[in-house]
Amino acid sequence: VPGAMAAERALAMATCTAPVNIAVIKYWGKRDTDLILPINSSLSVTLHQDQLKTTTTAAASRDFAEDRLWLNGEEVDVGHPRVQACLREVRRLARKRRGSSEDTATLGLLSYKVHIASENNFPTAAGLASSAAGYACLVSALARLYGVEDELSEVARRGSGSACRSMWGGFVQWQRGERPDGTDSLAHQVAPETHWPELRVLVLVVSGQKKPVASTVGMQTSVETSPLLKHRAEVVVPERLAQMIRHIRERDFEGFGQLAMRDSNQFHATCLDTFPPIFYLNDLSRHIIALAHRYNAHHGHTKVAYSFDAGPNAVIFALADTVDEFVEVVRRSFPPAANGDQFVRGLPVGLATLPQELVAAVVTEPVPGAVQYILHTKPGPGPQLVDDPSQHLLGADGLPRRRT
């Protein structure tokens, strides 16, 4: 149909995917809430997109009457200040890039309205850094749409602080930066995802959680009221960052695991030191922490390490040869309610027979149904361009495709 062809020429579209990341040296607290500048540097592990990813399609057309945004199929407010900040920054970079060239196509594109559709392949309510993946993906798709190839972690940071770390794969440091304008508050890769092939990640999704205090609000209360947070940012974190980078470079799991656990514990201690106190961990989280310590004590060294973000889900780091046994320990400690076959998702996990003395020492009082499921994954790459047009989330009319 000739008319359809003309419409398609007037429509530019790009689709990207982006990953979730888990901080092992935590970011908590902003020194500038508008620019999202942190009070301390942080370091994270990017998780593999085969298990956890956001997919975003951005389209621009002269036929669009207004900017529109859909999240997981539902239309949401495109006027959200952080979404607008990302749009504005990417367009600014595109204009700057085009200023020197005569590329009228992109200049036309920049005057068009955009439609954006975004989907997660994991439950958004699971408390798994969905905003980091979401904003990293938004910025990647917009940058691809407008032909921007600049350093984009600064733009992603304007959407969600931790999103700047999702702009890279593997092991990523977000530098606090010193400048008040935030131009040096950037993420960079410490080591690629291929650097530590044996490293595995188990996300234990616990049931019945809803965040008691949103991260943004909790963070600012902590900055205003917690002396421990100030001490952590100024004294503890700089030394820990250097240590953590060394452990990663040397693939030293003992050092990496010990430090990840200590840092997670200290982050939650600053939440308790906030006034009024914030509790992101629940009884189940504490149960998992105790289990990890009993398991390591039984083996006489650090075989598993936990890290908790602002929520009750546990992220467990382990080497590949520990996964089968530890998953069986979790299965015995938190027997699955009904979904025994769906209890472990993601990368395959083998069967393990537990020695009786391990069960006696580690599996104390089972809590049935407490862990909804375990997601098994590993470090993975940064944002990816999706070349296959059939994977676009928007159709030729610029509206979300019906998902079969």
From TrEMBL:
What pathway is this protein a component of? Steroid biosynthesis; cholesterol biosynthesis
Q: Where is the Mvd1 C-terminal domain?
A: 201-385
Q: Which UniProt keywords apply?
A: ATP-binding, Cholesterol biosynthesis, Cholesterol metabolism, Lipid biosynthesis, Lipid metabolism, Lyase, Nucleotide-binding, Steroid biosynthesis, Steroid metabolism, Sterol biosynthesis, Sterol metabolism
Identify the GO cellular component terms for this protein.
cytosol
Report domain Diphosphomevalonate decarboxylase-like N-terminal positions. Answer: 18-187
Q: What is its EC number?
A: 4.1.1.33
Q: Where is this region: Disordered?
A: 381-404
Q: Where are the transmembrane segments?
A: none
> What Gene Ontology terms describe what this protein does at the molecular function level?
ATP binding; diphosphomevalonate decarboxylase activity
**Family recorded in the similarity comment:** Belongs to the diphosphomevalonate decarboxylase family.
In its UniProt entry, what is this protein called?
A: Diphosphomevalonate decarboxylase
Q: Which gene encodes it?
A: Mvd
